[in-house]
Request: fold
Amino acid sequence: MYWLPDAGPAEQLSVDDSWAQEMIAAGVPRAQAETSPQAHAITRWLGPDAPDTDARCAATVPNGPGWLLVCSDGLWNYCSDAHEMGELVRKFAGCGEPHAAAAALVRWANAQGGRDNITAALARIAPTVTEQR
Reply:
């Protein structure tokens, strides 16, 4: 999941529970970890045989307008860096229509090789400023 504000730096809000993500957290360069044969091996899951079922959650409060992107590794495999993902989304989100922009992201990932299932959902977030009393 990514927060891609209209102004300011893009942020990756969530991470996969995968071997690649654990290697990145341990200091292995992103490109090396994400191209490893073990990159997509999952390290946490839900189910009766899961050793740890505590969900990891965090809250984010946007301070301006932007895009919220939820996507599968079929998309971020080709563009995982938050800044680069922000540039990619801005390229396709010019129409202002979330569904069309998400479809364009899926087509883009397919054009890059489409080696995994590709899912993308975009939401336009425009927080309202409330008067403080």
Remarks:
- The chain has one domain: 2-125.
- The CA atoms of residues 26 and 105 lie 30 Å apart.
- The radius of gyration is 16 Å.
